[in-house]
């Protein structure tokens, strides 16, 4: 088996070294963000995942957290130009999905449409704001109307499939291609609509605001949630039957993708549950019991090293005749993606949360985070999906919940971690590990030259390449420069963990 990660010292920077790390990462980000902007994608795809729309999303992401040498207005101008390029790739750039199984934000035209609608909303609602970050998006014309129609048709397609096709089919719900990916798009639109609540719109802009609000309404989001849950229940019943009662508590939710029951964030249970938990509390609350029991089952699948197999255990695994591979430590498959889900579960915890489950989640997070730090300098590259950026975002998420809890007063999570958490780190135990991986990734060119790291197929893209790492560097810098006690709602991973909702479900 080839080595999937690059060994490092496992010695994160101490507090005295963080200033140098900050400057190194900032300098690298300034240079590499310009490199991404100067590249013309060879790919003829406009997808967010590896296409030119991903570069637009990177620029938009960077514009929301102003950093020296990265002017928000310039970044937004670039983002709008790339979105216009995506529209002009082919006559089918805004083709409506033909199946709910292929209607996601990351891999279909839904992503292009969603980002154009968000930019249209921002342009209309920021005209009178004091920061002066207003850009001319005439390059996008009135394309927002076609974009709205595309998203609307995608949600209608899901509804029609549930009525007229086999609604008990447990496939096509994953994040990368399927219904959970479409649900993410609706949640991003809802976030944009929420931010524009107090804006002053003229007559034409009011049509835009009304349209986006309707696209992301409670009814529309509930439709997607119910479709995903219903299919998950059907999949769980089929999975339990396959296991023939060999395990005492099979999960109440399970999905498949092309016949395989994946666990990870891209195609599997962890990613789907994560997106469901980003939904407004009043919509997802009726399903929290099933979600939490599935999370508990997921924790039970974790191995002694802190990782998860790519797929759910089969009957032969329980018989001991086969062994599912557990060597992948990535966002798409393995601990990095599952960590983002578990950190979202911890964000939803309250003083009334069952102590036993809370302790299970925290113990699982600590084991997985230790593994991601050790094995997170991935040989496949620096992207989000199966590269270092995914590892960095996983550790950022852990830092946001556990480092913050360690330094907080009257925090229930603090009580659980107090006996086993490392001390003497100034409340930044996991953050400095994210910083370390981010700093190591700044030397990616040397790693490639030495043959330790591969060049991905799409080296400038968001999910395979440099654009995704730029977003990770920016989030690391954001936390290094944050005021003490600052709380972050999400890790900020674009396309997966960057929705700031109006209310979160609790347990």
UniProtKB/TrEMBL annotation:
Keyword Membrane: yes
InterPro entries: 6hp_glycosidase-like_sf (IPR012341), LANC-like (IPR007822)
Keywords of this entry: Membrane, Metal-binding, Transmembrane, Transmembrane helix, Zinc
GO cellular component: a single term: plasma membrane
Residues given in the record as Zn(2+) binding sites: 332, 385-386
Entry-linked Gene3D superfamilies: 1.50.10.10
Protein name listed in UniProt: Lanthionine synthetase C family protein
Origin species: Mycena rosella
Keyword RNA-binding: no
Highest taxon of the lineage: Eukaryota
Transmembrane segments: 262-284
Gene Ontology terms describing biological process: carbohydrate metabolic process; peptide modification
Pfam families per record: LANC_like
A GO molecular function held by the record: metal ion binding
């Amino acid at each position: 088996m080839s080595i999937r990660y690059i060994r490092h010292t496992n010695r994160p920077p101490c507090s005295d070294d963080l200033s140098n790390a900050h400057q190194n990462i900032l300098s690298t980000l300034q240079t590499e963000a310009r490199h991404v902007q100067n590249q013309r994608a060879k790919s003829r795809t406009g997808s967010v995942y590896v296409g030119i729309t991903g570069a637009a999303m990177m620029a938009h992401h960077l514009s929301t957290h102003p950093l020296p040498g990265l002017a928000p207005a310039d970044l937004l101008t670039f983002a709008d130009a790339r979105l216009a390029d995506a529209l002009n790739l082919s006559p089918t750039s805004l083709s409506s999905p033909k199946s709910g199984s292929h209607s996601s934000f990351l891999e279909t035209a839904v992503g292009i449409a969603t980002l154009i609608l968000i930019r249209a909303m921002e342009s209309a609602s920021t005209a009178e704001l004091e920061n002066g970050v207003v850009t001319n998006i005439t390059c996008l014309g009135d394309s927002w109307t076609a974009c709205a129609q595309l998203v609307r048709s995608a949600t209608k397609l899901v509804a029609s499939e549930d009525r007229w096709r086999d609604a008990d089919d447990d496939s096509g719900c994953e994040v990368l291609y399927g219904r959970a990916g479409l649900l993410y798009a609706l949640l991003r639109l809802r976030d944009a609509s929420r931010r524009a609540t107090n804006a002053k719109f003229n007559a034409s802009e009011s049509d835009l605001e009304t349209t986006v609000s309707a696209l992301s309404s409670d009814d529309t989001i509930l439709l997607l949630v119910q479709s995903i849950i219903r299919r998950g229940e059907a999949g769980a019943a089929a999975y339990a039957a396959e296991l023939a009662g060999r395990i005492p508590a099979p999960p109440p939710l399970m999905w498949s993708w092309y016949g395989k029951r994946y666990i990870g964030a891209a195609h599997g249970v962890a990613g789907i549950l994560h997106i469901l938990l980003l939904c407004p509390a009043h919509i997802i609350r009726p399903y929290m019991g099933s979600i939490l029991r599935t999370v508990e089952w997921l924790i039970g699948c974790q191995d002694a090293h802190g990782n998860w197999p790519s797929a759910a255990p089969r009957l032969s695994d329980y018989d001991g005749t086969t062994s599912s591979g557990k060597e992948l430590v990535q966002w798409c498959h393995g601990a990095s993606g599952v960590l983002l889900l578990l950190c979202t579960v911890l964000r939803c915890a309250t003083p009334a949360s069952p102590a036993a489950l809370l302790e299970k989640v925290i113990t699982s997070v600590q084991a997985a985070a230790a593994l991601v730090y050790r094995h997170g300098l991935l040989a496949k590259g620096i992207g989000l999906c199966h590269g270092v950026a995914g590892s960095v975002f996983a550790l950022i998420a852990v830092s946001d919940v556990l480092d913050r809890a360690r330094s907080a007063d009257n925090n229930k999570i603090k009580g659980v971690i107090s006996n086993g958490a490392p001390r003497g780190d100034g409340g930044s135990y996991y953050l400095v590990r994210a910083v370390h991986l981010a700093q190591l990734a700044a030397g990616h060119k040397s790693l490639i030259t030495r043959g330790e790291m591969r060049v991905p197929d799409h080296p400038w893209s968001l999910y395979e390449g440099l654009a995704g790492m730029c977003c990770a560097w920016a989030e690391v810098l954001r936390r290094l420069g944050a005021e003490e006690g600052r709380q972050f709602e999400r890790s900020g991973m674009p396309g997966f963990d960057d929705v700031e909702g109006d209310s979160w479900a609790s347990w």
